[in-house]
Predict the 3D structure of the following.
Amino acid sequence: MALNPTDSVTEGFLPAAARLGLAVTLLTDQPEAHERAYGNGRQDHAFPALDIVPCDVRDFAEVIGRIAADGRPDAVFTNSDHLQTQAALAAEYFGLPGKDWRAALRTKNKAELRRALAATGPDAADPLRSADPLRSADPLRSADPVWSADPVWSADPVWSTELATGQEPATLAGLDAPYPCVVKPREGVASEDVVLVADADELVWRCVEIRARRPGAALVVEEFLDGELRTLETLGDGRTLHVLGGFRTELSPPPHFIEERLHLLPAPPPQPHTDQVLAQLRALGVGFGVCHTEYVVQGDRARLIEVNYRAIGDQCDLVLAELLGIPLFEYILRTHLGEPLPDDLGARTDGRVRMEYVLADRPGRLASAPPASVTERDGVRLDYRPLREVGEEHPLHRTNRDFLGVLRATGTDQGRIDAAVAQYLAAHRWEIV
């Protein structure tokens, strides 16, 4: 199931499905875009037998009905941030392995995520006591209610409140919030319309501004978590949960939060933060398939920003698979086919990467930019990929839609990687007029 085509699907999951010998029915509300993406211009990738079918994929009932018309499948899968709950419900309907739909909804809905985490802990009434927090690969297996206090983490709630659909931004004028704070769409992605606000007046007008672009959208206002931003990438089969790695993320200056570069953290991921994040994921019921979690380090505490119940994007998943030296996309698909993961994935631990995103700093037409290129020197591989064609004109979004290109620098020596990136950026120019 997919909305728009993405590199993760085009270069990751579809080629992996082909290597596994699978036939794929792709349900999408943008069939023409997918036809173009997998047409004559994309013969550099081996695709599986592929049937692109129009469907209102945001409606789980439509998804189930469309799947049922073709007979019971072997798996239902999506990597879309927007479609995890629908895919989980469809998988459960057909008795297939999949994510717990409650966990998928809980992580997608940022207000519910905060409520769920605030309600967990040894002294709290646990709203999640309905099933094993790591759902079995056998979706029909029942489980007794469980709760155990994790010795490395207990409830560390983040202050938040919700501006629900139908509520006017003016109702926030008297809000006793810990300013500065962050306002964001409740089901948003890619830092779109995520902004830091200094006081109550700015909070109200920012909400009005966001609602002008997203009429009626529910918004979340929450505590600003200052500190180093990191990610944790995990893969589970419902019984075993593997840590694939993590990244340190550098953002643009406030008030917006645009990812400018990521560095792979040396393995194993740093403690005690990793165990704290894993404990919070278990409390949320997350543990099946791949997950990308963002958190802030504050001393010895790991405080969650958001949980994206899918693979990390913006080509980081492609690089991660390459550096780990494992069939990552095949492993992800195999879990949804009901196959257990190995106890040891056999991943390399010596790889390093720097993902450098070239950002537009103004609206306008891209007049010049370097072409795609791949070079290797002194143990560093530089892979530059344009994300916007020369001649295209765009507004300034203040999200990852402002990316002009991505430079993937990989090797085993971080110092050499950083030097190679600096040399590349100094030698090339991106001009917007």
